[in-house]
Amino acid sequence: MSTPLNADLHCHSVNSDGTLTPTELAARARANGVDLWALTDHDEVAGQPEALEAARAHGLRYLTGVEISVTFADVTVHIVGLGFDHNDPRMAGGLADTRDGRGPRAVEMGEQLAKAGIPGAYEGALKYVGNPRLIARPHFARFLVETGVCRDTAEVFRKYLVEGKPGYVPHRWARLGDAVKWITQGGGVAVIAHPARYKFTATEEYALFSEFKQHGGQGVEVVTGAHSPQEALRYADMAREFGLAASRGSDFHSPDESHVDLGMLPPLPGDLTPVWSLLQARIH
Ligand code: AMP
Ligand code: MN
Ligand code: MN
Ligand code: MN
Question: Which terminus of the chain is more solvent-facing, meaning fewer CB atoms within 10 Å of its CB: N or C?
């Protein structure tokens, strides 16, 4: 039997909430044995030209990528796009609209944290922002670790940045159908990211998968840094039930924060259709 392709189709750079540049990520992916790579920054494609060039320089095959923030049934869901045209103005416009509220949201997060006894968090978070268009919760988390409020970013999220905690500011992101459309009209494939991470009832989850398919979505992450082995099995079943292709990605953000490194994941179950088999013509 041949060795399965080491595909890692989910990670983040300084163009969103990761701490490495696309060039540093490509070198790390290469060193870890990745064959096929995609950089999937949140709501942003500015890193794609650098990622593509670095992938070429390191002999990695590459698919364009993005991770779009969506609100579905009042829950934030992430949709990964792969293999689309990153120069398509309809994608650029949609992402610009999606990013729009991040600035005011971050200011409000700073105000809420100040009320909770942590002053200067907005300014502090800004020091960690690599892309002024994209301030996200991990930038706040890094500042709260730096100032000793918490030991690590996981603790910051638990105590301050998730629903019901003082620094959590709800936000309305893109619509599911729009995100899928931006990806597919540019020739790409839409993928439900880390499905086990959403707090859905069984009915809501069924609705997500059904509506995603109706909109033209074709993939789901089965093996991801965000899934336990049991969760991977469960979403392998969902892929079979809904006739979706399977994706694989570490969701790597930072050597200091991510417990799963680039390319360091188990293989996809052999009977599933890998998402890259739908994208052969789009691989660089
Ligand atoms: P935002 O888009 O500003 O809401 O930030 C979302 C990002 O925060 C995710 O992409 C993760 O990188 C990070 N994140 C979300 N929840 C957690 C958590 N519980 N622990 C650590 N990081 C998290
Ligand atoms: Mn992130
Ligand atoms: Mn995500
Ligand atoms: Mn991600």
Answer: N
> What is the distance in A from the centroid of ligand 3 to the CA of 251?
7
My answer on whether 117 and 243 are in the same domain is no
Nearest-atom number in ligand 1 for the CA of 69 is 2
The 10s digit of each residue's pLDDT in 73-124 is 999 999 999 999 999 999 999 999 999 999 999 999 999 999 999 999 999 9
Non-local (6+) Cβ contacts of 277 within 8 A are 245
Ligand 1 within 6 A of 40 CB? Answer: no
**CA 217 to chain CA centroid, nearest Å:** 16
Q: State if residue 253 touches ligand 1 by the CB under 6 angstroms criterion.
A: yes
Q: What is the whole-number distance in angstroms between the Cα of residue 1 and the centre of ligand 4?
A: 32
- Tens of pLDDT along 110-158? 999 999 999 999 999 999 999 999 999 999 999 999 999 999 999 999 9
Q: How many CB atoms lie within 10 A of CB 262?
A: 27
Q: Which of 10, 12, 15, 17 is the best mutation target for the ligand 1 pocket, counting ligand atoms within 8 Å of the beta carbon and taking the most?
A: 17
Q: Which CATH number belongs to the domain containing residue 223 in this structure?
A: 3.20.20.140
Q: How far is the CA of 136 from the centre of ligand 2 (A)?
A: 8
* Residue 194 and residue 177 share a domain: yes
User: Virtual CA dihedral for 21, 193, 38, 61, nearest 10 degrees?
Assistant: 150
Q: How far is the CA of 137 from the centre of ligand 1 (A)?
A: 6
Whole-angstrom distance, CA of residue 240 vs CA of residue 232: 12
Q: For ligand 1, is residue 138 a contact (CB within 6 Å)?
A: yes
Reduced to 3 states, what is the DSSP secondary structure of residue 249? Answer: strand
Q: pTM for the full model?
A: 0.98
Q: Looking at the structure, do residues 126 and 257 belong to the same domain, yes or no?
A: no
Q: Which amino acid is at 143?
A: F
- Domain count of the fold of the chain: 2
pLDDT, tens digit (0-9, with 9 covering 90-100), for 177-194: 999 999 999 999 999 999
Domain span at 111? 102-159
What is residue 2's predicted lDDT score, i.e. its pLDDT?
66
Residue 188 within any structural domain of the chain? yes
